[in-house]
Amino acid sequence: MKVSEYAKHLLLAPTLEDKLLPPSRPWEEETDFTPIRMERPGRSPKLQFSDKKVKIPRLEHLNLVSNRGLSLHHFANHELMAIELFAWALLAFPSAPKSVRNGFLKTIEEEQTHLKLYLHRMREFGVDFGDLPLNYIFWKQLGQFGSLESFAAVMSVSFEGANLDYAQIYAQVFSYYGDHTTSEIMLTIFEDEIKHVKRGLRAFEHSIPENKNQWEHYLSLIKFPFTPRRAKGYLYLPETRILAGMDPDLIQSIGNYEDEYTGRVNLESVKKFGLGETILRKNRLDSHLPSP
Questions:
Q1: Whole-prediction pTM value?
Q2: 173: helix, coil or strand?
Q3: 3-class DSSP state for residue 28?
Q4: Which pLDDT tens digit goes with each residue over 179-189?
Q5: pLDDT of 254 above 50
Q6: Count of domains in the chain?
Q7: CB–CB of 195/102 below 8 Å?
Q8: Would residue 36 count as lying in a domain?
Q9: Is 89 exposed, middle or buried (0-12, 13-18, 19+ CB in 10 A)?
Q10: 198: nearest Cα among 258, 152, 144, 229
Q11: What 8-state DSSP symbol labels residue 47?
C-alpha cells in the first residue's frame, strides 16, 4: 500500500474501526505527487459534524463519573479529527520531506492509540462515542492550511501545543479525585504530544526567513480569526514547551499573547488543584524546570 492510499482510506472510511486501522510498513513508492485537498472526511451518520455547542464540564465537577465520561468524549473527538487531518496533510503536501511524512504517519498511529484509550475509558463511564454532538473546530481551519508550514503552525504549534497544557491539567485533576487510571491515560497522551509538537516544529522551523524570528514567522502563517490564543490552554504551562524543544522566545511570546477572547482562569480552581506548580511525567516523577 502507498502512503497516499492509506491516507485516503482514513479520510474516506465511515466507521471508527476503519479510521483506527494502523499504518503498515514498508510502503510502496509513490508515483503521483499531485496534491489532493478533501473538503471533509467520510463519516457514518453517528459521527457527523454538528454545530450544536456542548460545554465541557468544569474541573470542579470532575468528581462525578458522568462528567469524566463527557470530558473524555470531548477529547476523543479531537483525536479523531487529528487522525483525519494528518492524513489530509499527507495528501495535500505529497512533496513534503520524507522525514516530515514519516513523522505524520507516526503521529497518526499515536493519535489512534489515544482514541482507543479514550473510547475504552469512556465506555467504562457509560458514554459511547457519538452520544454527544461532535464539533469540527480542527476541520474549520482548512482555509489556514495553504502550506506545510501553516499546517504545522496551526495543528502542531497551536492545537497540539495547547494539548500539552490540557493533558497536564486533566491528569492532575483526575489524580486529585483519585482516578489514577484516567490520570495515567492523560499522562500517556502528554508524553506523545511532546513528540508531536517536536515533529511539527521541524516542519515549521526549516522555513523561517532570515529577517524573521520564530514568533514573527508563526504570526505570518496564521490568519484571523485564528489567533495565538489557540496555542495554549486556559492555564499556560511554559515548562511543557521546553520539553518539546520550542524556542524560548516563542514560548514567552505565546504566553504573553492576549486578545479580546482570552479567557480568565478560575484562580480558585488553580489553587484547589495546585495546577501550575509541577509538571507530572509518566513515571510519576515531578519535573521542576526553569521558566523560559
A1: 0.94
A2: helix
A3: strand
A4: 999 999 999 99
A5: yes
A6: 1
A7: no
A8: no
A9: buried
A10: 152
A11: G
Q: In whole angstroms, what is the distance from residue 265 CA to residue 270 CA?
A: 8
**The three three-digit cell numbers of residue 185, written as one number:** 491515560
SS3 276: coil
Distance CA 162, CA 240 (A): 10
pLDDT band at 292 (very low <50, low <70, confident <90, very high): very low
Rounded Cα distance between 206 and 203, Å, is 6
Nine-digit cell at 207? 522555513
| pLDDT given at position 261 | 66
Cα torsion 85, 247, 188, 162 to 10°: value is -60
Residues making up the chain, counted from first to last: 292
- The domain of 134 spans 3-20+43-273
Peptide bond before 26: cis, by omega within 30 degrees of 0? yes
Segment 246-269 mean pLDDT: 84
In this structure, what are the phi and psi dihedrals at residue 241, rounded to the nearest 5 degrees? -75, -30
Comparing CA positions, the residue from 68, 70, 111 lying closest to residue 87 is 111
Q: What DSSP designation does 234 have? A: S
Query: For 213-251, how does the pLDDT look when each residue is reduced to its tens digit (9 = 90+)?
Result: 999 999 999 999 999 999 999 899 999 999 999 999 999
How crowded is residue 283: how many other Cβ atoms within 10 Å of its Cβ? 9
- The C-alpha angle with vertex 282 and arms to 123 and 160, in degrees rounded to 5, equals 70
38 belongs to a structural domain: no
Q: Where residue 264 falls among pLDDT bands split at 50, 70, 90?
A: low
Model confidence at 285, in pLDDT bands (50, 70, 90)? very low
Separation of alpha carbons 153 and 132, rounded Å: 29
The label of the residue with cell 470531548 reads: 74
In a domain, 124, yes or no: yes
Query: Any idea what DSSP says for residue 244?
Result: T
- Three-state DSSP at 182 gives helix
- DSSP one-letter code for 59: G
Residue 13 lies in a domain: yes
Chain mean pLDDT for the chain: 93
E-strand stretches of 149-249: none
